[in-house]
């Protein structure tokens, strides 16, 4: 395809950048809505009884949604080339294994895991980990036989295994496959199960949607003692890599795959419209409306103003449907995205009283459906900005990290902070803990460094891929 849906890269980039930002701001001096709703300051102790969501709680769902939206492009393109479904399933499983290894490897080489307090050895090992990840995940640009490429990757994986097995960790910790990065591990599971579902339902969208209520039924009935659903829920051949409860995130990935199909159909249709005066006002209206929907739901649910939030949502969603009632090209795409997002937002709000209110952990049905609906709105918003108004240069800081998310995810912990500590610059970060504004600025500066480094490697076509 000559044209690319930059909105999808931008959504993935937004998710990864805010993921880094949320992990690098000052630990406990910012307002509660700057952290996960269930880990409020100043102690930041997890409290499962707390309900509500913050912008931090949207980060992971948005990334999952973008993963699902990429299936029609990656898998769909392979099917069009004649690749068999068996081969695609093999590739999905292979990708899941690689992501699982990635989750285990990086978790073992965070500096605070290697030593406490951190020292030069831990920082150098973290940088070595970052370096080893390159031959493991990049497509080597040098022309050589395929067996040579494979040998390089095998050697890199071998080095990683030796590093994990022989390294001494803090607090007498030893290498353990069950010690992994949970975010990446969940992504690994979604890469396998989400891909397989998409492969076998690529031309049967309603069957794919039907997976959601079946999965929901199993999750709900698994609480019945002695039931077969409980046996399915509890069974795991690899406890360190898979649990049935991970599959609840398919509630986000599957709708994401539908959004990806909308995007791909729109690109393939050849009816991409040009900017017109009529569409401009609709586009501006949708920018304001989609952004307002995200902010209103965050504020309304964080403050537990559920009734006013429902009323404002109902009015806003109705207004959006009215605004997009006519038109083709971009308008047709926006209409599909908005209606799908509207359904999921309403569904999520209807589920809000269930399970004690909306929560990220353990994830409630309200959280899964609502965040999926808001992801539709986020994708629509970015499609207007990136693809309709063609703000390519101004959104490059989102698009380029979105094209290289694995690197962006670890670059602060495995490169930026170790280098900062080795050079003595890290000691200056203590001055950013004086107040909330400085604490936020700390996160912004570290995130900017992560973005710049990732953009550099993306620009030279150095991508980490599974």
UniProtKB/TrEMBL annotation:
<feature type="transmembrane region" description="Helical">
    <location>
        <begin position="283"/>
        <end position="301"/>
    </location>
</feature>
<keyword id="KW-1133">Transmembrane helix</keyword>
<feature type="transmembrane region" description="Helical">
    <location>
        <begin position="53"/>
        <end position="75"/>
    </location>
</feature>
<feature type="transmembrane region" description="Helical">
    <location>
        <begin position="150"/>
        <end position="171"/>
    </location>
</feature>
<feature type="transmembrane region" description="Helical">
    <location>
        <begin position="120"/>
        <end position="138"/>
    </location>
</feature>
<feature type="transmembrane region" description="Helical">
    <location>
        <begin position="307"/>
        <end position="325"/>
    </location>
</feature>
<feature type="transmembrane region" description="Helical">
    <location>
        <begin position="246"/>
        <end position="263"/>
    </location>
</feature>
<feature type="transmembrane region" description="Helical">
    <location>
        <begin position="96"/>
        <end position="114"/>
    </location>
</feature>
<keyword id="KW-0472">Membrane</keyword>
<feature type="transmembrane region" description="Helical">
    <location>
        <begin position="437"/>
        <end position="457"/>
    </location>
</feature>
<keyword id="KW-0812">Transmembrane</keyword>
<feature type="transmembrane region" description="Helical">
    <location>
        <begin position="12"/>
        <end position="33"/>
    </location>
</feature>
<dbReference type="Pfam" id="PF16401">
    <property type="entry name" value="DUF5009"/>
</dbReference>
<feature type="transmembrane region" description="Helical">
    <location>
        <begin position="177"/>
        <end position="199"/>
    </location>
</feature>
<protein>
    <recommendedName>
        <fullName>DUF5009 domain-containing protein</fullName>
    </recommendedName>
</protein>
<feature type="transmembrane region" description="Helical">
    <location>
        <begin position="206"/>
        <end position="226"/>
    </location>
</feature>
<feature type="transmembrane region" description="Helical">
    <location>
        <begin position="407"/>
        <end position="431"/>
    </location>
</feature>
<feature type="transmembrane region" description="Helical">
    <location>
        <begin position="364"/>
        <end position="386"/>
    </location>
</feature>
<dbReference type="InterPro" id="IPR032176">
    <property type="entry name" value="DUF5009"/>
</dbReference>
<feature type="domain" description="DUF5009">
    <location>
        <begin position="4"/>
        <end position="263"/>
    </location>
</feature>
<feature type="transmembrane region" description="Helical">
    <location>
        <begin position="337"/>
        <end position="358"/>
    </location>
</feature>
